[in-house]
Specification:
globular; Alkaline Phosphatase, subunit A; alpha/beta; homodimer; 412 residues; 15 helices
Amino acid sequence: MKAILVIADGMGGRPSDIDGKTCLEAARTPNLDTLAGRGATGLVDPIGPGIRPGSDTAHLSLLGYDPYKVYTGRGVFECLGIGMDVHHGDVCFRANFATVEKVDGGLRLLDRRAGRIASGQDELAAALTDIQLEGIRFEFRASTQHRGALLLRGDDLSARITENDPHKVGAMLPDSVPIDAGDAGSALVAAAVNDIARASFALLNDHPINSKRRQEGKHPANIILLRGASTLPHLPSVKETFGVRGAVIAGGALYRGVGLACGMDALYAPGITGGLDTDLGVKARTAIDALDRYDYVFVHIKGTDNAGHDKDAVAKREFIERIDREFFGPIMEGLDWKSTHLAFTGDHTTPIDYGDHTAEPVPVLFVGPNVRSDTTTSFGEREAATGGLCRFSGSILPMLLNYNNWAPKFGS
Amino acid sequence: MKAILVIADGMGGRPSDIDGKTCLEAARTPNLDTLAGRGATGLVDPIGPGIRPGSDTAHLSLLGYDPYKVYTGRGVFECLGIGMDVHHGDVCFRANFATVEKVDGGLRLLDRRAGRIASGQDELAAALTDIQLEGIRFEFRASTQHRGALLLRGDDLSARITENDPHKVGAMLPDSVPIDAGDAGSALVAAAVNDIARASFALLNDHPINSKRRQEGKHPANIILLRGASTLPHLPSVKETFGVRGAVIAGGALYRGVGLACGMDALYAPGITGGLDTDLGVKARTAIDALDRYDYVFVHIKGTDNAGHDKDAVAKREFIERIDREFFGPIMEGLDWKSTHLAFTGDHTTPIDYGDHTAEPVPVLFVGPNVRSDTTTSFGEREAATGGLCRFSGSILPMLLNYNNWAPKFGS
C-alpha cells in the first residue's frame, strides 16, 4: 500500500472571493471533482474550531501532532528546511535581510524585505561569518529572496526572548530582551541577537553589493532581523509511530522543515519554487517516483496561499485550476489506485479580501479503496460540508495512514 | 465590523417535547428561518459530545475557554454578576435564603427557597452585617427571590470545602468540611461557612420580616445556605485575546458574571428580568444601541431554560416564538447586515420531560457577509444537523469574532 498527502496552502476561501463563491468553488477542477466522486469529502478545522492557524502550527496538527504541546516557534523549521543541522538545545530563528538607516539613538526600519533582494544574498551571508559571539557558535544561511535562517549553538541557551523585527516601516529597531527576567540562557541569546543586529549593520551597510544596490536605486540589505526563536521540538517521528517511511516534497523551507522534524526525507527537484511559478508537473512526477521508494509522500503546494496574501482572486482561482490540471492530471494517471490512498486539503483559509489566514475549516478529500465513498461529486467548501467525512479537527496524516492499516493501536 | 452573540439558555429539546418535535421545531420562527436561509447552521456540543453541561461551564466553553482548565465553581460568577468587587483569592458562594427548623442535634431543612421569598430580602441581608468572622471579611448580598451571593476575603483562604446545602427537604444541614484534610485555608473557610449558618439562623429566625411571614403562613427565610465555593478564575479577557471591546446584556446574575469575568462590560436596561417575563424588545434595542459603542455584544436570554426546568412545553415554545418576534424582529431591522456577523445558539438542551440539562448538541446559526451560506432554510435541531457548519464543540465567540477578522493567529 502507498499513501500520498497533498496540502494546498491557504486553499480555503470565503463567499467574498469571487461573486459569492470561494476561489476553489469558482475554479474549474474536473480531476478533483472526479476524485471527490470516487472518495469522500468533509471539512477539517486545521487545529480546532475558531482557532486561526499559522502555517507551522496547522501543519503540525494536520500531521497528527498537538501544536499546543509541541510547537516551539517557526525558526527551527526554517533552519531545518534550508538544510541546517539542528541539535536539541540550539536556538533557531527566521531571518530577514532588511533595510535600516542610522539615526540618533539607533536604527530605523526602512524596508523589512530589503527591496525583495533577488541576488547577492550568498555573498552578504558570507560577510556575516566574521561575526564573533562569546561562547556561542553562529550559523547564518540565506534562502529565497530576503529570507534566511540563523542558528545559535552554546551551553544552556534559551529561546525565550523577544524579536527585534519591529514589523513596521519607520519604527526604531527594538532591542531583544529575555521574556523571563533573570534567566541567564535567554539573557545570553537576547544579547547575541542585539550583537548580530549591530554587527550585521557594520558588516553589510557598505558592502559592495549594497553600494551597487544603492546606485541602482534599490534598498540595501544592510541588516539581519531575527524572529521566531525556537528550539527543536520533541516530535515522535512518523516512522516511530506508524512504522513507515515518508518523504516531503515542498518548495517552501518551512514545510520541508516540518516534514524533516517529523522524520521525513526531503526530496528536491528542479522547478519546485514554493511560489505561483512552481512546476506542478515536476512535483507530481517527483511524488509518483518517490512512491517507488517510500511508503508515503507529503506534497506541499504553496501558491494558493501566496495568491491569497496578495489578495488576487484570479491568480488563486487559476492556480487551483493549474493544480487540478498539472498536478492531479499526472497523479490520476500515475498512481496505482487499487493500492493507494490519497488525502487532499488546505492548511487554513486565506480569504482574498482579508489577505491573511482565518479560522474557517477547509475542505478535505480522501480517496482510495478503503474510503467509505459518499455522494459528493465536486470539491469545494460548501459541497464538502455535506460530505461523508463530516467535520473534524487536524490529524489528516494519521487518518490517511490508517486507511493503509498502518496506525498503531492505542490500548489493546 | 460588528458582532452579536445571542444565547437562548436551554434552547435545545427532545422529540418528547411536543408531538415528536422539540419546542424549537414546534415553534413558528419566521425571522430565525430567514436568518438560517441567509447564513449557515449546524450543531454545537456546548462543551463536548456526551458532556452534560452546567450553564456556567457551557458559557465558558461557548465563549472560547476550556472549562476543564479554568472553571473554579459558580459562586464567583454570581458575586460578579450582582456587582460585587471580587479580588483574586476571595472565596465566593451562591447563597440561598432557606427555611430550617431547630431539632435535637441541629437544623433540619424545610424549604430550600424560603417560600420563594419575594420581598424583604434586603432588610434580612442588612441584619447579617452583624456577623463577625475572625480574620475574614464578610460580604453578603441578596439578589432575586431567595438568591444571593457571599464573598469571604482573608489571607490564604481556599475554596476546597463541601457545601452545607443538603438539597433535600427533611434532611439535616451538614457541616461544611475541608475537602483536603489538614489544609489550613479550607479549614478556615469551612469554619466560616458553619459560623455563618449558625449566626444567620440566630439573627434571622426571629427577625420581624420572618415573624410577619409566619403570620402570613409563609416559610421564614431564617438561614443562609452556601454552595458553589470558588475563586476568581484566571481568564485572559476577550479584549486581551481579540483586541476588541464587548458588552454583556443578561438578566441573570450568573451570565452577567461570566461576561464580566471575560472582560465584558455589563449593560442594564429596565424590563430585563432573566425570566419568562423579560422585555425582549428592550433587550434587542439595548443590544443595537450598544453596538454603536462596542465591537461586539453578548445577549443572554434565560426564559427558554426556565420553561424547560418547569417542564412547560407550551411556555417554552411560546417563549421561543416571542424571541423570534420580539427580539429578532428588531434585530433584523436594526443591524447593518453588510458589516455585522451574528451567532445564535443555546447553552444546552433542557428537555421538557426531564426538566433539567442534557448533553445533546444544540442548533447554531451564523449569519453575515463572510459566512459560507448553506442550504438550510429553517432553524431547528434536525434541520441544523444538515447544515454547512456540521457539528463541532464550543468556541462560538471565537468563531464569530474570526468572521470579523479579529482572531489572533496561533503560530506563524
